[in-house]
Every structure is written in C-alpha cells, then in structure tokens.
Amino acid sequence: MKEALHGCTIGFVGGGAMAEAIIAGLLRAGIAPEAIFVGEVRSERRKALEQSYRVRTTEDNAAVAAASDVLLIAVKPQQIAKALAPLFGVCKPDATVVSVAAGISTAKLRGWLGEKVAIVRAMPNTPALIGEGITALYSDADAGHRARAEAVLGACGEVVWIEDEEEMHAITAISGSGPAYLFLLAELMMRAGERLGLDAALADRLVRRTLLGAARLLVVRDEAPSALRAQVTSPGGTTEAALGVLFDRGLPEAMREAIAAAAARSRELGER
Ligand SMILES: NC(=O)c1ccc[n+]([C@@H]2O[C@H](COP(=O)([O-])OP(=O)(O)OC[C@H]3O[C@@H](n4cnc5c(N)ncnc54)[C@H](OP(=O)(O)O)[C@@H]3O)[C@@H](O)[C@H]2O)c1
To answer: 16, 124, 130, 151: which one has the fewest Cβ atoms less than 10 Å from its Cβ?
Structure first.
C-alpha cells in the first residue's frame, strides 16, 4: 500500500475529526509525519495536530494544495465552497484530490478546483481512528489515482469501490453515520440498565463488551444477523419479550425512516 504513496506529500484541507482519524491511520501504516501537511483555520487544532502527530500545519490552504500529491478535502460540506474557491487551478497537475465531504459531487468539486483535476470521493467512518473503519470510494479517474486514494483510506480499515456515485448518499446514511446509531443504542442500553438498578459503571462495562462481542460475531460468523438473533431468542424467553416491545414500538420503521433522512440530508448538502 505504501508504494502508491511513495514520495508523495499528503495534504489536508481541514484538520478536524475525520482528518485526524486518517492521519492516525497513515502514521500507523508507516507514512512519515513530514510527508503530511495540514491546512486548518483553528490555531488550537493546528497546535494539537503538530504536538500529537508531528505533522506540518498551516492556515494557508493554497500552500497545502500547491505542495500536495494527494490532497484530502476534510472540511464540513457547509464549509467546502469557501475553502475550495481560492484553490482553483492551484493543485499540482498530477495531484489526486480525495474528498470525504458528505453529499458533495465530483462535478461540484471540479467546478471549484478545475475540470482536469483527478477526483476521488470517499465516505469513511470514525472507527478509522483505530484502523477499524470502512470507506466507500468512487472515482472516474485512472488506476494510479485510485491506487493512491485506496492506499490512504486503506490505512484506516477496509475499502470498497462503487461504480455509481449516486450510491454515496445511501452509503453515507449507512456506514458514514452508522457508528452513531450504535452509540445511541449503547447509551439507551446503559440508561435502561441503570433504571433497573445496576451501578452505572457496571452497566457501562456490560454494554460495551456486549456490543463488541456481538459486532465481532457478526463479522466472524458467515450468518445473517437475523439467524444470529434467532440463536439468542428462545421462545417465551427474555430476549423474545424485549424484541416484542421493539417491534411493537416500531423500531424497524424508525430505523428505515432515520436512514432515509440521512440519505436525504446528504442529497440536500450536495444541492446547496
Ligand atoms: N465525522 C464523521 O463521522 C464523518 C464520516 C464520514 C465523512 N465525514 C466528512 O468529513 C468531513 C469533515 O468532518 P469532521 O467531522 O472531521 O468535521 P470537523 O471536525 O468540523 O473538521 C473540519 C475542520 O476544518 C476546519 N475548517 C473549516 N473551514 C476551513 C477552511 N476553509 N480551511 C481549513 N480548515 C477549515 C474546521 O474548523 P471550524 O470548526 O472552525 O469550522 C474544523 O476544524 C465532512 O465533510 C464530513 O462530511 C465525516
């Protein structure tokens, strides 16, 4: 994976949570901190990134764009027009631009950066922080640019390529936002445990390990989630009592609507 990035300067426009997750992955994969250059408006973020990861930082995004062989766009979708407009024509001619911004299309990115720029869209998620992310990638650029993007995001976990850019909205709703759904479930389970009289620390520990164990089973076993669920659910038992309430209260519809809302929001962000 490192071969595709050999000798490359890897730049970031925006040094927030997602940039940090990717930087951590790159360093774990053996990329030298001096090869990473971050453009970030907040001085305290710049200082934190310099101190934690020994990467170079600046507030001058154009300097980053001009120096980068791979340029990650990691500002919020609402900030992207302002961040990219000054970068028109600034990127190196053979640069690979990788955008993680939700909802922002390749066409829009080319509008800001120039028609000839090689663009890869990426939708990572925050488990990238510990190398357990999954990133969907889309690009109409050539194999060399794709390999660079895959090397960067592959340092953060699994990578999957898609052929239809439209699918990015659904992917954002499933895996981009998905960790938050599980974290909400964790919060609710902990709170319910406490209401039943468990000590907060005990409820916390039980829930974290239960979700981790269940997630591992889901990945390791080649069985449908419904089959794994059935294995926990004996007729007339405790799990059946719980699941009955969740179905009666409309959890399946709520989940469907929630994920549809996230996909719709992704579309909306792209249309502004
Ligand atoms: N977090 C996730 O789970 C996740 C998952 C997949 C994709 N993404 C995508 O990742 C992107 C970044 O998200 P994030 O969660 O990392 O956001 P974030 O933590 O807010 O990071 C963005 C950073 O960029 C800074 N910034 C704003 N305008 C800038 C500019 N013109 N030049 C340089 N820096 C600028 C922001 O400063 P201020 O705070 O002062 O604005 C902030 O520090 C988004 O487009 C999002 O769609 C995020």
So the answer is: 130
